[in-house]
Amino acid sequence: xxxxxxxxxxxxxxxxxxxxxxxxxxxxxxxxxxxxxxxxxxxxxxxxxxxxxxxxxxxxxxxxxxxxxxxxxxxxxxxxxxxxxxxxxxxxxxxxxxxxxxxxxxxxxxxxxxxxxxxxxxxxxxxxxxxxxxxxxxxxxxxxxxxxxxxxxxxxxxxxxxxxxxxxxxxxxxxxxxxxxxxxxxxxxxxxxxxxxxxxxxxxxxxxxxxxxxxxxxxxxxxxxxxxxxxxxxxxxxxxxxxxxxxxxxxxxxxxxxxxxxxxxxxxxxxxxxxxxxxxxxxxxxxxxxxxxxxxxxxxxxxxxxxxxxxxxxxxxxxxxxxxxxxxxxxxxxxxxxxxxxxxxxxxxxxxxxxxxxxxxxxxxxxxxxxxxxxxxxxxxxxxxxxxxxxxxxxxxxxxxxxxxxxxxxxxxxxxxxxxxxxxxxxxxxxxxxxxxxxxxxxxxxxxxxxxxxxxxxxxxxxxxxxxxxxxxxxxxxxxxxxxxxxxxxxxxxxxxxxxxxxxxxxxxxxxxxxxxxxxxxxxxxxxxxxxxxxxxxxxxxxxxxxxxxxxxxxxxxxxxxxxxxxxxxxxxxxxxxxxxxxxxxxxxxxxxxxxxxxxxxxxxxxxxxxxxxxxxxxxxxxxxxxxxxxxxxxxxxxxxxxxxxxxxxxxxxxxxxxxxxxxxxxxxx
Amino acid sequence: xxxxxxxxxxxxxxxxxxxxxxxxxxxxxxxxxxxxxxxxxxxxxxxxxxxxxxxxxxxxxxxxxxxxxxxxxxxxxxxxxxxxxxxxxxxxxxxxxxxxxxxxxxxxxxxxxxxxxxxxxxxxxxxxxxxxxxxxxxxxxxxxxxxxxxxxxxxxxxxxxxxxxxxxxxxxxxxxxxxxxxxxxxxxxxxxxxxxxxxxxxxxxxxxxxxxxxxxxxxxxxxxxxxxxxxxxxxxxxxxxxxxxxxxxxxxxxxxxxxxxxxxxxxxxxxxxxxxxxxxxxxxxxxxxxxxx
Lengths: 670, 293
Hints:
The complex is a heterodimer of chains A (670) and B (293). Chain A is an alpha+beta fold and 670 residues long. In chain A, 50% of the residues lie in helices and 14% in strands. Chain A has 24 helices and 20 strands. In chain A, strands 1, 2, 3, 9, 10, 11 and 12 form a 7-stranded mixed sheet that branches. In chain A, strands 15-17-18-16 form a 4-stranded antiparallel sheet, with helices on both faces. A 3-stranded antiparallel sheet of chain A has the order 4-6-5, with helices on one face. Chain A starts with a strand and ends in an 11-residue tail after the last helix. Chain B has 293 residues and is of the alpha+beta class. Chain B has helices spanning 7-20, 40-43, 92-102, 165-173, 189-207, 210-227, 234-253, 259-281; strands spanning 24-25, 52-61, 77-86, 112-116, 119-121, 126-135, 138-149, 152-153, 159-164. In chain B, strands 1, 2, 3, 4, 5, 6, 7, 8 and 9 form a 9-stranded mixed sheet that branches. Chain B starts with 6 loop residues before the first helix and ends in a 12-residue tail after the last helix. Classes of the chains: A alpha+beta (670), B alpha+beta (293).
C-alpha cells in the first residue's frame, strides 16, 4: 500500500521545541486520519533544526465509503423537529425514509458518503494539522496574514505514492522539493518518497533522525575522548539540545587554558554548558575534570575544524576569564560579611527579604537540630550562611551554582566542614533523582529551609494550584518527606491542617510510585493525628501486608458490615454508640465470644501499638476475624429488646474503635 | 573575500554591503540610548504599513556595564550596527550571511549557527522571535523578527539585525582585549576609548548626581506627556522618552533604585514609549490601519 511523506521546512527551529513538535505533528495527523476513517501501517515523525518530517506507510489509496443511518423524529412530530433533523443531515424531506418502530413511524436518514481519493483528503488534513500545531511560542511573518509558525516557513513537501499532494499553508504551495544542509549543500533536492528522501538528505549532509544525530555525537565524543585517555561526563540534556542544533553534527575537541584549571570544576562545567553548550571531559582514573572539552559543530571544513576549534577556544577563554574574575573577586569578601546584603534581596513580596528568611531558617534549624540530635550551633551557623552566596558574582552569573559556591566560600573562610557542607546540601534534594542529605547538620538546615518556604507560602495564600507551582512547593514537600523517610527520622511536622493535607497528597504520590495504595494512606491519615511520617509509613506498610492476608481481607469485610450497620442505626437513633458493653446483656454465644475476644486482644493490641509494632497489632486484630464472622452469622443486631439491641451496637462500636487505632478502615476501598 | 582589517573597515564594509541591498544608510541618533533599537528609525519605523529598509551605526550606552577600562570585552559605551528591513524579505537569512562573507568570515571555514534567542525590551514594550547568530561558539549578531513594539502588533513584521561591532571586530581581528583592536591603521581602540571608559565608569558608578538624574527623569516624563496632548508631536516626545530611559539606566548603575522600584520605573518608560508609538501611528508616516489584533 502507498506511503505518504510530509516535510515542513523552515528557518531554525529552537532545539528545545523540536521533539515535542514532532510528537504533536504525529498525534494531530493520526487524529485527523482516524477521524476520516483511515487506517495505516506505520507512522514516524522526525525533527531537526530546519525541518519537521512525517512518514506514513501503508495508507490506502482511497478513503472507505461511509454508510450511516440516523433515526429522526416521529412523522407526527412538530415541523420544527423535522426541520432540525433536515438541517443536521443536510437532506431534503423527500430523501428521508419512513420506518415503523415500536414507538410509531419515524423518519430515517441514510447518509452515504463515497470515500474520496487519499490525496484529496491529505490536502485537507495537512493545512488543518499545521494550523493546529501547538508551538510553545510562534510568530507571524506574512504581511497581512495572521498565520503563525515557529519561525518563517519556507516550503512544504507533501507526496502520496510518490506524487505531490497539492495543498497550501501560509500562502506556500506544496511541492516535492527540499533543501539540504545550509552550507554543505546547494540547490533543491527533488524526492518522491521517504526512502529516497532520507538518502538524499544524508547525501546533502542532513541526518534526519534526532536519535541518530545524538548517537553520532555520543559515539564520536567517546571515541575522541578515549583517544586522549579521557571520557565524557554524561549530560543527556545537553546531548539532546546539541542534537537539535546541528543537521550534520561534527564533534571537535578543544583545550581549556591551564590558568583556569584551578577554578572549581563546577564553575567551568556550568560555564561551558550553559553559555557554550560544550561537553566536559574527565580522567576516568581520577574522576577529575580534564583540560579538554567537546564541542559539536554543524560543519565540515577543509581544515578539519581547525579554525572552528581555535574560535571556540578563544570564546571560552573570554567566558572563563569572566568566571575566574568573579571567583577571585568573590573570595575577597567573607560569606559572613555578605549576610547584611541579603536585606536588599526580596525573597517574595509577602514574605520579606532573604535576610528575614535567613533569620527564620536559622531559628528553625536550631530547633530541628535539637530534636534530631544535630549540633545546634553548627546548624544555626550553616543556616545563617546558607543564602549568603546569592550575593556573589559567580551565583549571579550561574544561579544553578547556589549552595555549591556557598560551600567553596565557606571552606575558604575556614568555616567548620559540617557547616560548609550544609550550606551546599541544604538545597537537596533538588529533584526526584537527587540524593537527600544524610549528615545531621545538613538535614536540619535542609528541613528548615523547606519548611519555612512551605509554611510561609501557605500562610501567604500562595498554595500551588492544579496547573501551577511557581515556588516549587510540591518539590519542597516531597524533599522533606524523602529526607525524613530515607533517614528514618522521627519528627513531628507541626504544621497547619491544610499543609498537613498537602504533605499527605505528596506522600501519596511518592508511595504510589512504590506501589502503595492511596486509600491506605488516606485510611491512616484519616486518623487525624498522625504527623510523624516514619510512623505513618510503617502503619501503611503493615496495613498493606495485613490486607493481603485472608484474615485481613475478611476482617475488613466484617468491619465494613459493622460500620454500615452502625452508620444506619446511629442515624436512625441520632446518636453515636460509645457506651460500655454490658456483659450481662449479652445473650447469644456468638456475641459473648466476640466480646471476650475483643477484651482479650485489646491489651495486646495496645501494647503493640505503644511499641509501634503495627504488624503485631494487626496480627492480633486478625484474630478477631472468626468471632466477627460468627457474630454476623448468628446474631441479629436489631433485636426486639431495646436494651439488647443497644448493647450489640455498643459491641460493634467497640470493634470499630479497636480497629481505628491503626487506621480509619472506612476509607479503605474494596 | 579580504578580512575587514580594522574597526572602521568593518563599519565601512557593512555600510556598503547594506547600501547595496537597498538600505537607507542613516547616521547615529543624537541622543544617549542603550541600544540601536531605541533609534526612532527602528522603534517608530517598525510600526505601520510603510516599507522601510535602513542601516546605521548606533553608539550604545549601558552605564552598569562600565568596568573602568579593565575588562577585556565589557564596555559601557560601544557600537551597534543595526539593520531594519520591513517587511522582512523571505531571504533575509541569506542576506545576512552575505554580510558575514563581506566582512571576511567565510561560512565554509566556520561554524555558523542560528540559536534560539527571543528578544524582549520591557522598556519599549517590544518583543520578537529570533536567534543569536553564533560563529564558532561566539555570539556575533542578534537576529529578530519584531512582533510587537510599544505594545502594538507589527504588521508587516520587520527583521532587525544587530551586530555588536566591537565583539565582531575582535573575532575578525583575532584580538582578545577590546582596547587592542585596530581602529584604523594608526590607532588602537584603546587610544580612542580607554580614557572614555575610565571616566564614564567613574561617572556612572560614583559621580553622577542622583538628585539631578531623578529630576531629569521627572522632567523628561513630564515633557513627553505634554508633547502628546493637544497637537501631538510624537517625534520630540519620543526624544524625551529616550532621555528618561537613559536617566533610569544611570540611576540603576548608581544603585539607588530598589528591586521593586525598578519594575515601576521600567513601567513608566514603557508607558511613554507606548504613548509615543500610538501617536506616531496617527501621523502621515505612521498611517496605521489595524488589520487584525
